[in-house]
Amino acid sequence: MGHHSCCNQQKVKRGLWSPEEDEKLIRYITTHGYGCWSEVPEKAGLQRCGKSCRLRWINYLRPDIRRGRFTPEEEKLIISLHGAVGNRWAHIASHLPGRTDNEIKNYWNSWIKKKLKKPSKPSTKTTSITDHHQQQQHQRSQLAYNTITSQQDIFFTQDIGTKSQVLLQDSTIFNSPNQLFFFDSGSLDSMTNVINDATNRSTNNASLFQETSMLNSELCWQVDQVQQQHQVKTSYAIGMDSNYLPSLIESMVPPIEIPRNNNNNLIVGGQEHKNQLNEWSSQMDTLQCCPNYLFWDQEDGSLGGDHENIDPSTSNNMGHILSSFPSL
DNA sequence: AATGTTAACAACCGCCTGGTC
DNA sequence: CGACCAGGCGGTTGTTAACAT
């Protein structure tokens, strides 16, 4: 198949880069900047295509590249973000300063291999998997399940009050069209507190996201990066304030009567409310307005205990839920 | 020590998108 | 409006080092 136009030239070298080539590229870019990548090889005296130079620079030679093993925090973040946005490696990498999409992708792929090689416990409630597609779905579900259970993923939470703050802090998570949110009905009170809190905050500009900025500022490690980060944060704040948050709040307030306390906060409780909320959730799903919310009974669908015993492909709604987990 | 296997990483390929003419 | 191009992205393959047998 055809190569990129810039690679059609003769005498274009491929394969691993030699230290001399690296040195040439570094020297050229640090003194001239890269400008147009297609011109870089010629000007830098390299027999490579511009695309190859770009990749080498971005993935390996950039001075702000952070090498070495992923920290547990980074790993957690990758897992969370991957759960939210799927295989959008560049997007995920943008949340990990100094890490490249390629690095994260490689890391994830080896991680997937490890996960898939771990034999899952045979299901006691067998469901016939008849075709390839279903097998893939099953595999994805199993993987998602493994991911979640092994990493205490934030989306399965009985501590939603605290953790939903995390969700609210990342617009990419909430904006994801395929995102799932699991609300343990026992935690609805704290969830509604968060929503009420967010509602209150949203009336006061983007104060919620200023806090986010403060948190993320720890990740800024270079002056120019700080500038970029600031832009990103600003766009978050604008996006969230003008689009995301109001729609979220609107979406999150079910069209059923839920009592409020003196502070005008929602009070959710009782089986009737749970049923209504689940009904509302399914309606939202149909409207594709705010899909994939689920309220369940702690007693019936508890995930707080031994996760090993749950087969996501067969348990009541877990199979359905996990099969719609963002692409893996 | 030789060979096979695996994991990690680097690089390439092909497609998509946005800008320009 | 379509063609062309460069840049960006995700999937995939190739390479190599580490480890096991």
UniProtKB/TrEMBL annotation:
List the InterPro entries.
Homeodomain-like_sf (IPR009057), Myb_dom (IPR017930), Plant_SW-associated_TFs (IPR051953), SANT/Myb (IPR001005)
| GO biological process terms, semicolon-separated | green leaf volatile biosynthetic process
Q: Give the highest taxon in the source lineage.
A: Eukaryota
Protein keywords: DNA-binding, Nucleus, Repeat, Transcription, Transcription regulation
> Domain HTH myb-type: where?
9-61, 62-116
CDD domains from the UniProt entry:
SANT
Q: Where's it found, cell-wise? A: Nucleus
Listed GO MF terms: transcription cis-regulatory region binding
Per the record, a Pfam family?
Myb_DNA-binding
Region annotation (Disordered) ranges? 116-141, 304-328
User: Gene3D superfamilies given for it?
Assistant: Homeodomain-like
The record's annotation in SUPFAM superfamilies points to: Homeodomain-like (SSF46689)
Record PROSITE patterns: HTH_MYB, MYB_LIKE
Q: Which SMART domains match?
A: SANT (SM00717)
* Gene Ontology CC entries for this record: nucleus
**Myb-like domain boundaries:** 9-61, 62-112
Q: Which PANTHER family match?
A: MYB DOMAIN PROTEIN 55, MYB TRANSCRIPTION FACTOR
Task: Spell out the protein name for this chain.
Answer: Uncharacterized protein
State the organism named in the record.
Answer: Anisodus acutangulus
